Amino acid sequence: MTAGGRVEIGVDIGGTFTDVVCREVGGALHVIKVPTTRGDPSAAVLQAIGELARRWGVQPSEVGRFAHGTTVATNAVLERKGARIGLLTTAGFRDVLEIGRQLRSEVYRIVLEPEAPAFLAPRRYRKEVPERIDASGAVLMPIDEAAVLSAADELVQAGVEAIAIAFLFSFRNPVHEQRAAGLIRARHPGLMLSLSHEVDPAFREYERTVVTAFDAYLKPRVDRYLARLEEGLTQAGIAAPLQVMQSRGGLATAAVARLRPVRLFLSGPAAGVIGGQIAGASAASDDLITIDVGGTSADIALISRRKPMLKSEGVIAGHAVRVAMVDVTTLGAGGGSIAHLDASGGLRVGPQSAGSEPGPACYGRGGKEATVTDASVVLGYLDPGFFAGGRLGLEPHKAAAAIDTKIAKPLGMTTAQAALGIHRVLNAQMAEGIRLVSVRQGIDPRRYALVPLGGAGGLHATALARELGISRIVVPRLPGVLSAAGLLAAPTEHEVTAEFATPLADLDRAALREKLHAIDARAASLMAAEKVGTADVAISYFADVCYIGQSYNLEIPFDADDPDPATCLYRDFLEAHDRIYGHSVEIPAKIVGVRTVHRAGGSDTLAEMRFAPSGGPAIIGRRDILVAGESRFVGAAVYDRDALAEGFAFAGPAIVQQADTTTLVEPGWSCVVDAPGNLILTRLEAARS
Asked: What is the pTM of this model?
């Protein structure tokens, strides 16, 4: 918080809605959902800030903290709207980016598409530079400075906005990359650069080249977006620095985020996982499966022992990118997902989405396709007059017409049956996604609690839990905007990695300490830029470990002060290998690289976000709904979430309405409100057993 600031704001921009959570320190909490402005996402943010002032008197000058989750980096890749970039490589390695690893994720397709992201820098934008450093870091051939300048000049004339530099073995000795960058900056001071030894200092030239190219591809667009948002915030009177969520689950100032935009790929989903983590902790649930169902996608993540699971490599638009991130699996399944019939007449849902413009047919904005939200209206789950807190009135007759025309009549069924079919197909897809994520980690989902997030998560929670055999659901107090709330609970965090190839049997503690000291100094400088005192920083260490000769490694935490780190790392590596891959063998292993994570701040509970009941009636009406397993519509009580006090209990069928989402409680489930305001849903069969 900045000096004198008494207000914190968290903003999460999704594909359909922009969610804003405003917390007055020691006071009230305000929630706003506004449609995302696709052309300029910052416009919706500024609109919401203006509304905070009009509705609740929150003045921009009172804002002491502003945290933001964004999809701008992911969208730039998905839509291929990043910058035109150039790539400088060691002579002879110009085509590494295009050759790739010759891996195929879809081996049975008749026509195989290239899976290496050559679109980042087509061949005419890739230039070779005579230079060579060997595997030990020794200079074999000095860098040809004239060739560097000539290549840079040609690329600038071709219209590139950024250049990625990825020389062979620069992670061992970065002197040539540093010299090339110095020459280019002197000749072209406005050109953005990404250096592989800074972006990804680890072995494997293809992976390092890819992530460096992605970083350059994103830099101009992310820089423009953050600059535009910062300018808008300043003009609105907000003096607090802009903080941005990174893929690993920590916040960084916009100035640091600009330097490492490739770390923003899962900015929005990571905030949702943090929100799910603190919601689960408030409900005394340590092991969770979170599913964030928005307008265009569903993000699935695992939290084990109150810690989100992380991975060292993610997949963005089908391309593997070596960036540390929260282990989130994204499905093209959301409220705006379009239902359609395939060539054989089978019902399919997604991955295409109606988004917010024009949106589902029920929005009344010109959308003609049948979507999941339209199905929810037909089934009686949504109140047309209270969608998004009443900000957007729905038109049920248009929802019914779209489903009837597109799905029901071609399949020879009623509109209600078609709507229920849409829900069942979507639920089956999400349940399968959860199974794949959990089983892949060696985890039985039945032992975990389900935490539904997002505007549509609560509508699918009981159906998903029933499908997966899960007996406990935790619906947070603010599920529809929990990603924005998670931003306010996230820590400031910076991670620095370094190559450290050494067999565990030959591990030199002094050399390890020296390497950790070097990367700690780099992480400390980043925290200093955040104006975080050293006394407030917690430091964690990790090692990437694999069997000698193995292609893939696992991240293993370790204690730098352990008298025998090699033994502990080997033991923990064998345990992790057995859990994830189903086996382990006691043969020699090695460290590939080491990592330090500096963290400060953050919250583990939702104690500061507790709500007092409104005092109004708990039941505000009844509605007929149709759920799976029922042949006809059944009556369901409609509850006002704001009026439910601690200890209030009821059983399904029921609907719980609130400004940011709607929760469906199917028959066979009971619900009770806990002290922090979570809805705790329990399967009645499980409770009796």
From this structure: 0.84
